[in-house]
Amino acid sequence: MLDSHGRDINYLRISVTGMCNLRCSYCMPEGGIKKKAHKEILSLETIEQIAFSAVDLGFQKIRITGGEPLVRKGIIDVIHQIAQLKSRGLKDLGLTTNGTLLSGYADELKKMGLTRVNISLDSLDAEKYSQITRGGKLSSVLEGIQAAKEAKLWPLKINVVLIGGFNDDEIEEFVNLTREDDVEVRFIELMPIGEASGWDREHFLSGTEILKRVPQLMPLAVKGQGAVARLYKLPNSKGRVGIISPLSNHFCNYCNRIRITPDGKLKPCLHSDLELDIRNYGEDYERFLLDGVFAKPNRHSMQNEDYEPVLRNMNEIGG
């Protein structure tokens, strides 16, 4: 489905909850967030109906996000129901998770039809991981990664938010994960969103820092419209390294996605406060999605001097 700028919009991200069992400094307030009343968040049935409408409109990829989606009661059933849409044209059903609960879910998620997982992991040092997540255990994430491998949730991607002064000394260690494992380690520039908007300048590092630290990385061709990561590979390695640079090297010309928040707002652009409220559409989910597609701006304005960071935290948007 083409938007008003000629881009094929075929990727829908649905955030099923703003709740999370971690409190990452750049994503969530220290005290967490106030739990919304049941009527304030999308029902599982509505999420499934939105997915059904999206596939009928030509969306080929759906990703379930949070907060932490595995804390949402009934998430396994949602995955199972959406996976049935593969017979109607859905090609990829993914999940973004912090990995801490994944060891108990990976096998069942695979059986229910999940295609792949992206696991967020910002440090390989147990103490630093606990610091950035405000109490998380690195061991539980590593167990989740192993479970995803054993369940064959491929391709397995590990998302690393690049934070100057915190984890930039671990760049080489993260890259080395790709030597013997068929995983994609993706470095993502810190973005001025919500909780991160006050300290992003101090901690921002361009994605090009990866290539400075690991000059032996070789560029790979990126296949497919909508690919946001520039891909690289160490000589003779099994895995790949991705660099996602929404600030220093934006990919708006290739953006193929829209997002739906857990409280039923459609965000045509991650970096804009523009939102469409599902409550204004009754059960006309196709019109809801179509209006979202045609509301997509040509590009974000993060590099403009007058840019005001979006108000929502990443956990509320689907980060």
TrEMBL record:
UniProt-annotated binding residues for S-adenosyl-L-methionine: 26, 67, 120, 191
Cofactor(s) it depends on: [4Fe-4S] cluster
Cofactor, free-text remark: Binds 2 [4Fe-4S] clusters. Binds 1 [4Fe-4S] cluster coordinated with 3 cysteines and an exchangeable S-adenosyl-L-methionine and 1 [4Fe-4S] cluster coordinated with 3 cysteines and the GTP-derived substrate.
CDD domains per record: Radical_SAM, Twitch_MoaA
Organism from which the protein derives: Desulfitobacterium hafniense
Stated role: Catalyzes the cyclization of GTP to (8S)-3',8-cyclo-7,8-dihydroguanosine 5'-triphosphate.
Pfam family membership, one: Radical_SAM
Ranges where the Radical SAM core domain occurs: 4-221
Binding positions ([4Fe-4S] cluster 1): 20, 24, 27
Lineage: Bacteria, Bacillati, Bacillota, Clostridia, Eubacteriales
Name of the protein described by the UniProt record: GTP 3',8-cyclase
Keywords for the protein's UniProt record, in alphabetical order: 4Fe-4S, GTP-binding, Iron, Iron-sulfur, Lyase, Metal-binding, Molybdenum cofactor biosynthesis, Nucleotide-binding, S-adenosyl-L-methionine
EC number: 4.1.99.22
GO MF: 4 iron, 4 sulfur cluster binding; cyclic pyranopterin monophosphate synthase activity; GTP 3',8'-cyclase activity; GTP binding; metal ion binding; S-adenosyl-L-methionine binding
